[in-house]
Hints:
Protein name: CTHRC1 C-terminal domain-containing protein
Radius of gyration: 40 Å
Pfam families: CTHRC1_C
CATH class of the domain at 56-182: Mainly Beta
InterPro entries: CTHRC1_C (IPR057873)
Amino acid sequence: MPNGNEDRCSSGLNGIPGTPGIPGAHGQPGRDGGKGDRGTPGKCSCTKASTMNWKQCSWPNLNNGADVGVIQGCDFVKNSNMSSLRVSVSSNFYVAGVSACKRWFVTFNGVECRDPITVEGVLWVPSTETRSHRLGQFEGVCNDLRAGIIRVDFNIGNCPDFGDTNGYTGWNSATRLFIEELPPPQQ
């Protein structure tokens, strides 16, 4: 039975909007997007000495009869003041004489290494032998060399306490001088 209020309730004006509700739970993760653009190259914090820097100088059939002095050499560009140089020499070494001795050594800009020690090899011939051709190889590391062009020479000389004897380098074979820049040594 109508009470006369039905028309008034259904045709009334909207009221004041309410306050927003509490946010709902997050939905499931979305799908992966497309591949992005390539980024700019990063900056390397490496020192130049940690990259490979080496050189090999070689001579076929050197046949050098010098008894004292520079045999051969080459220039090497050292990149860092903090790095070291590793040098390796291989050749055919010859000493003639009775109880004879010759010394082969490396110089850097005309001076032998002092840090940590000289780079050298010695061949001694006992009194029972008069001639000796031998394949030989010696190597070492030199620290405390400035960056820039370093002249690395391979030399021959006399052994301490022995006279001047006949020496020969690179007879009928290749001679190699290998130079490599190394990162600083451990302390």
